[in-house]
Amino acid sequence: MLAAWRLWQRAVTFIPLVRSQTLNPPLTMAAAASPKRLRVYSSAAGDCDSANGAASGKRVGTHNGSFHCDEALGCFLIRLTSQFAGADVVRTRDPQILDTLDAVLDVGGVYDHSQHRYDHHQKGFNEVFGHGFNTKLSSAGLVYKHFGKEIIAKELEVSEDHEDVHQLYLAIYKSFVEALDAIDNGINQYDTDQSPKFVNNTHLSSRVGRLNPDWTDPDQSPEKENAAFQQAMMLAGGEFMESVRLHVKSWLPARSIVLECLWTRGKVDPSEEIMVLDRFCPWKLLLFELEEKLKTDPLTKYVLYQDERSKSWRVQAVSVAPDRFESRKALPEKWRGLRDDELSNVTGIPGCVFVHMSGFIGGNKTFEGALEMARAALKC
Description:
Layout: H1 2-11, E1 13-14, H2 28-33, E2 37-38, E3 40-42, H3 48-53, E4 59-62, H4 69-78, E5 88-91, H5 95-98, E6 103-105, E7 111-112, E8 117-118, E9 128-130, E10 133-136, H6 139-156, H7 163-184, H8 204-209, H9 222-263, H10 265-268, E11 274-276, H11 284-294, E12 302-306, E13 313-317, H12 340-347, E14 352-355, E15 361-364, H13 367-379
Parallel strand pairs: 1-2, 3-5, 4-5, 4-6, 6-8, 11-12
Antiparallel strand pairs: 7-8, 9-10, 12-13, 13-15, 14-15
């Protein structure tokens, strides 16, 4: 798991540069330890010499002016690769300068991986991630599509063809990158013509956008803008690496647990509609994904697991979808809102603790009691 820390060190450390204002990284240990330092600078049409000869090594280009989350993350990600490790970032719209750069993101009107050109604004561009995902890609999605496995394999310290790398590659796109692609391309989360019930300006794309120099700020210099873009790269990249770390530390082990428990449902109950977690873990999203992938039939109605604090057992109804409150089969209405002896008397099952008013969860003092509650609920 320390590989994520090393990747973070490599990606976010800065050194001073003429025409570039640097920021102090939040992790000073990383700044001291990293050999790969970041330079961000602008190159106007008349400043080709500074772009062409100022720095050694690779140079990655993106546009100057207002920035968005996709190119900030894309620049962060491409610098994690072996080919572009420690590359300078040149911010310009000058096509003559862009042509001299080793990679170009979010500008230039060209998508061509063989030439390391990753723009998505040109007419006729409809590239998607694939693997069942149909959201149009942004520059971040394009970089992740082509380099994501390399980045993840380095985190795991395994080869790119390792099974875990592929599973993480898909999961991180779904949980992190796809939303950035959709927001940058103006794709709504839901198919609806109704106005949203609330405004969400707390997501990553909004927070990156707020790092742009404010229009009231008297300093609108390229130096100020480049410093803000460095900060945007750190913000987007830091949250990406945190997502990778959490997936490696938590998601992968949880997936193994849920998969094994899903396969063994028939040993719990002949209906195969009751699943028992032999160790509690985040299971809800994983259950939906695995059931869909395995084309599970019948679908799981109840999941049993032990509460680690009380040591009692929970029987939880599975919702109809990950983002819905309705259950596939809620616990019986006549049980809802009851507790302890009153609930045990109604169910005829000893040791009952409670059933929630909505019927989505209940509890029993023992595993045997929770299993009986689930079996009885299936028959109602």
